[in-house]
Design a protein that fits this description.
The chain contains one helix and 14 strands; from the N terminus they run H-E-E-E-E-E-E-E-E-E-E-E-E-E-E. It is an alpha+beta fold.
Amino acid sequence: MKRALKKFLLTVTLCSCLIPAVDAQNIIATGPWKLFRQEHPALSYEEILTPFVVREIRGTVSSGEGGRLKDAYFEIGLGDGSTLGTPTSKGGQFELKSFGFVGPFVRSKSLRPGTYRFKVTKDGFHSAVGTIVVSRKAPKQAGLAIDLKPAD
């Protein structure tokens, strides 16, 4: 019974968070970015070469021309081939956490230390891709600041 309740609560929580974002953009079916979102129209992506080293995955998405971007989609690839993502807020901010169980309750928690590939998409902008290293040794206030280039 407890196991079924945990599965149900996790499914409801994930679906309510992710369904609005899935409607906005297409899902890539093949290649290195399989299961990640694709902006519309499909544009090239900009690789951020220097990895971000952080304790928690949080930050801002902006456009050099227009300030912070609402409803950009930030996501990471997980080791099992799936992705975990979230849209940005009105202020262009995001925070990505995983879920854990405490008895019958679902709670959010920081992602495990490790290296993750990320992609940020927004319709009408080139995607940004790169690497994040989650480490307990990272500075406490370290975050991501990602700038998307508008379509030409």
